[in-house]
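Work package 3, deliverable 3.1, input record:
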Amino acid sequence: MLRTFLALWAGRLAAFICRLLQRGGTSLPGYLALKIDPYLMGRLASRYEKIIIVTGTNGKTTTTNLLASIFRAAGLKVVHNSEGANMPAGVTTALLARRGEIAVLEVDEGTLGLVTRQVKAHMVLITNLLRDQLDRYHELEQLAAAISRALAAIPAATLILNADDSLVTSLGRGREKVRYFGLARTPWSQETTSEVLEGHICPRCRRPLEFNYYHYSHLGDYFCPQCSYSRPPAEYEVRDLELNSGGARFDLVYPGGKLPLRSPMPGIYNVYNVLAAASAALQLKIDPATVGRVVASFLPGQGRAETFSLGNKHLTLMLVKNPTGLSIALKTLTAGRGKATYLLAINDLAADGRDVSWLWDADLSPLLQAPYHRIICAGLRAGDMAICLKYQGVKEANLKVIPDQEESVDFLLEEPVDEGLILCTYTNLALYRRILKARGAVSEVTPLPSLSGTP
Amino acid sequence: MKLRLCHLYPELLNLYGDRGNVLILCRRAEWRGIAVEVTRISLGDKLDPKAYDLFFLGGGPDQEQGVASADLLAKGPWLKEAVEAGAALLAICGGYQLLGEYYRTSTGETLPGVGLFAAYTEAGNKRLKGNIAIQVEELGTDWPVIGFENHGGRTFLQGTRPLGRVIYGDGNNGTDQTEGARYRNAIGTYLHGPLLSKNPHLADYLLRLALQRRYGEVELPPLDDSLELAVNEAVYRRFLPTKGKW
């Protein structure tokens, strides 16, 4: 008990000091506390009435933040890790807050087992499983198997799963409480795909799956011609989707009702994020009107498509960390846009993934067809990005390789077009944000209120 | 002149951007006015050994590789016939392993391979991954071939010569300094993904091997490879250990 007490207060003291120093402090307090009491995460978690874990490859942070906002708007006391610190230390930091009614925890898909061994979650929401950091997670099927083992530790938890992702639905097999969310066919659904795919082997009989259509990547309406495995019916389904650069509008059909939703977040991946968070909220009997109100005003956090103004320049900063993320980011950013300068900043540090081969798995065609003024390649792997673009048909005169991040921004700012789109891997994101701020750029995103509620 | 390229199992064996190599080979041929015809051959398709000058086989996740390997065994004799007749071939990672004699899994099960390369692969307990540089003498240049490897299997050559000598990285098995395999004009390697992107010398070497089947010795006009070679050199130097194991 003394150990737990010490751990708790050491963590809280660290959180307090981090805030005094105005440092992020999203992992350090939890890290220290876990050093003193390795079981603290589980002890803290047991003080919450409900624990919801959000995991998957893409969309975790946005979904977590949106879900927490919905609960808060419904009058619940919520604790969550708002800034994507999703390893055990970050999860523990969030839980160090004073007792809450509900905890919404983003958990890294590769370390889920470390968390579920201690944290007896009531609900686990899985967004998708996409190709990401192959040097770290190895193959998706192996990752799915690891998640399945992690879920076995919490057999009573309700699973909220993406019906459109065959890898994710395979995690629901043999489970009692499973609810699926998904998208009905949209005007943007395609019968073929130019992306490199995974998740197209039948999880049951291991024959290739066939698809009636794809939404993006391997998400879509799949079926196995050999056995009866297919996309399960979605209890929470998006219908009549309208999507443009200003956001999305759709009906969410759920057991017992239909909720018209409007979101200012662009891109089909954000439709999934809204759907996932709304499904979890409705499943927990949150008032649909509250869900609709929060969704209508919710914008993603910093760096996840953050816009800045600087003089007459309009700059957008976006995180890209895997081939699907890059494909979708380019599709979203180029849609209906005039002449722009693009800056692709690729690093290969541990948090980015050491292997940059994934650049060749992305579908770059939206960029190649966009009216780009120039494409600047930056970061430690600027050259790899440039070669990829060269072979996709970008003329070398329109390509500029500037590995140094500061210099790349200065070059971008001197371009004769006003629109600048910066796509960064993980370790470049904070760096570019800092460089832009230092040049006087003003963020146009209202920052999210500090939601984690750490004391 | 025309290059006939056969891309085997493009939808199954496509881990790590392997398909980039097909694009690179096509572009480097087209930039020289050589027409290119790419045929995608997959499960159940017949393979005419005389129809192609160059075969490409990527790596895949375990499940996909399992599906492809059963089919590849059936196509094996055609593929061997093509290589014996002088066709060029590039096989990467999983594709390379499937072309060996067998793969012994961690449970001791032996999965048969095509037997094009006199080499066998055994499952290892730790994955060999990271940036790698090798020296390939046949390229006739001092430029190293560099790339990224990420494989659980250890491959041991049994008479087949290696593609190159490891400068840094692990290569076939992390112990004998060999990387890849060569048999006639066929190349197998663990350097995965867009291998040819930073190695234009290797790309052109493959193109020459492929074209000589129909056209005899072919001289390829030089291209401006300054970008590719600058990246080759930068990556090579960045990961070159100060105290190498060689």
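Helices of chain B lie at 20-30, 62-84, 94-98, 200-215, 226-239.
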